[in-house]
Amino acid sequence: MRMTRTLLAVPVFLSLMNAAGAACPQALAVYDEVGGRTAIDFIPNMDMVAASNTFRLILPDAAPIQGHVEWQSGGGRPDGLLLKDCPTGDATGEELAACTLWRGVVYAIDDEGAVGLLPGAREDAAQRLIMTDLSRALHFSTLNDGEAALPSFDVYEISGCQE
Question: Secretion signal: which residues (predicted)?
Fold first, then answer.
């Protein structure tokens, strides 16, 4: 009788472990552009105090572009930024504006289609992201050389979790 209970408990235990392991923290989530060829990989960030999320925009034929999300103080919205060739150290507002390719709010869409704010780095990853105005901003940026594959849409869907 004891052996039977143990054998019956093993599948239940394994299914609970799989369910617990199914959640991916936002800091490790990987997204593919809906209907496009670009991707976004979130990466753990230990260096930046102001940014709760760090990510890379992956373009098919170019080096990844580093980005991060800054949470506005007082419970504001998550402000995403993509920066390229920014000066190191103290930089003026003009210098930062010149190297900012995109700045916009990052929204999350859950399984039921409800729109909310991007989860924090340690929270469960969003199923979909809206990177507001990303495609338009990049098409009007220095990245658009007429040949680069840039995002054509601002929505990304989760495609995996880094380990």
Answer: 1-22
| The predicted structure's pLDDT at residue 59 | 93
Environment class of 80 (CB within 10 Å of its CB; exposed 0-12, middle 13-18, buried 19+): buried
Strands (E), the chain: 29-33, 39-43, 51-58, 65-71, 78-83, 100-109, 115-117, 128-131, 155-161
pLDDT given at position 76: 80
- Residue count of the chain: 163
CB-side neighbour CA atoms (13 Å) of 113: 0
- Joined together, the tokens standing for residue 127 give 């199923």
- Coil, helix or strand at residue 87: coil
Contact 84, 99 (CB under 8 A): yes
Residue 121 burial (10 A CB sphere; 0-12, 13-18, 19+): buried
